[in-house]
């Protein structure tokens, strides 16, 4: 039976880890690599690295060596940071212990230092609503083709301006959510640094 060893937010990191396990003849697989294509944003769903239950301890050891090498490379490159290549690695490294105890655990949600997806969604609300605000003509809503002659709905400019305010309010709320989320992530990262 295959179990989740680690969860990654970056496809490159999971492929590097898989190649390392393949080099050590540890059977592994990548799951949910393209899950965002079926209704989510990129990086919205973590990519899981799966191994057999009996290989969990060896795979953990091999990936721990990879983590050490990654840290040494980043320090020698002049980063000066003492961090792991993927923020999920610390959380996911605890997971094999619970798997060994017989409990399976869902992969951790991907951590990000900048939740830019929220701003993209806000922009998707904002752009059409600004177009409606700039419109000073009547808007005609076309019914299905078979009812075209009998049911035309005409919306006056004042009503379209009022309706445009709703998505603008949603865009403003999402922008506020973005900045609050960013501040919360920074506080969380600072707390983790202090705990070390």
Structure write-up:
The protein is mostly helical and 196 residues long. It has 2 domains: 2-100, UreE, C-terminal domain (Alpha-Beta Plaits); 116-195. Helices cover 53% and strands 12% of the residues. It has helices spanning 11-23, 56-76, 88-92, 95-100, 116-134, 157-195; strands at 2-8, 28-31, 47-52, 139-141, 153-155. The strands form 2 sheets. A 3-stranded antiparallel beta sheet has the order 1-3-2. A two-stranded antiparallel sheet has the order 4-5. Helix 5 runs antiparallel to helix 6. The protein is elongated. The model is unreliable at 80-112 (pLDDT under 50).
Name some characteristics of this structure.
6 helices; elongated; mainly alpha; single chain; two-stranded antiparallel sheet; Alpha-Beta Plaits
